[in-house]
User: What shape does this take?
Amino acid sequence: MESAAIDVQELENATNSDVNLRIVKQCLRSGNWDKNEAKSYLPFKNELGFVGDILVRGNKLVVPTALKARMLDIAHEGHPGESIMKRRLRDRVWWPGKDSDAVARVKACEGCRLVGLPTRPEPMSRRPLPSGPWIDTAMDFLGPLPCGSYLFVIIDYYSRYKEVEIMSKITARDTICKLDRIFTRLGYPRTITLDNAKQFVSTELDLYSKLHGITLNHSTPYWPQENGLVERQNRSLVKRLQISAALGRDWKKDLHDYLIMYYTTPHSTTGKTPTELMYGYTIRSKLPAIGDIETAPQNTDFRDRDQSLKEKGKEIEDTRRRATRYSIDLGDTVLMLNLVPSSKLSTTFNPRRYTVVSRSGPRVTIEDPQTGKSYDRNVAHLKKIIELEQLSTKVTDDSSEDQELPRASSDEDFHGFELEDDNTERIPILPDRQRRTVKKPAWLNDYHL
Assistant: This one.
């Protein structure tokens, strides 16, 4: 419902009825500002004055408490974002804590919540290196290829050793048959990280894993980054298959050559070859080496290298994605991102409200209170609902909030219809490079200024 316009007469009547403003007027006339009700106006006493019975600050009208809510509603008509709404208010009116009230009003707007930008991801959490080979693994399917085949990929988190199997059918039973062949040679791992494909959430695979003491760690739906190791390996495989198709070669032979190259090349993170960490030695390749089997001194420097490069990569990626942590906790009410919009007019978030029933790191389980159905989502796919009455307005004596200085807009300032181009590519904000120190020339020391 639209709010009625506020005229000067109504503002004057409300000012005369406002207890705090009457005290401020008395302080202005007497010059004595020892009243507690006037403390928030004290930093601006030299800018305050009267126009008739209306209190003003410079060329802006001071709004009494009774009209603040309506003034915010009028300023938010048309659904401006935080920056625009602040500029609208700064142009004509003022009261202590005005900017904070404007931000709270935008965040409490139902329409702005639904079409706001998706939540940024939380900082990355890197998986520690397992204590040995073939303990923690991950698997995924790549395909279908143009010929109709699929590539079944399973990789070891410790050594980065991977097995690739060509499959024409990818049912749960066929997947178990391939796993049996691999596990016969390498043994049963303790854990397997995998996505939520039909064959991976089947009863057959669940029974097979329980029978052999394997824990299945399913990644969060619509969040493939959680199974990032095997996803990156799939990109490497796709690149080789593209080269093979472009040159008209036998892709199965090229896949074999790629795996031999991969097994015998030191990994960029561990500095060791996958077969060395997997089997204790590097298998032979066509490249000559000292002796028939390539060996290396037994040490653990690769573990320190792995941890160092992981942390470095985490810092760079978190900075590039501007990752931040979110205070979504048990019992909060949230909106869920529309992952498959039905039309161009679909909102960014689904208007249906869900309740958070559990959270483990960035993985959140939410429940529909009406149907009782639960969903697993990454925290970046959710938006916490903050009602207007939950947002406490903080009135401080800090005058910096009320300065009329332009502020660089950020992604969080764009709400509702303020985002004009949804297809605009985001440019990551990277820290400025370090600049050299400029020193005064030595010959200037002979002069005294």
Remarks:
- The longest helix spans residues 228-247.
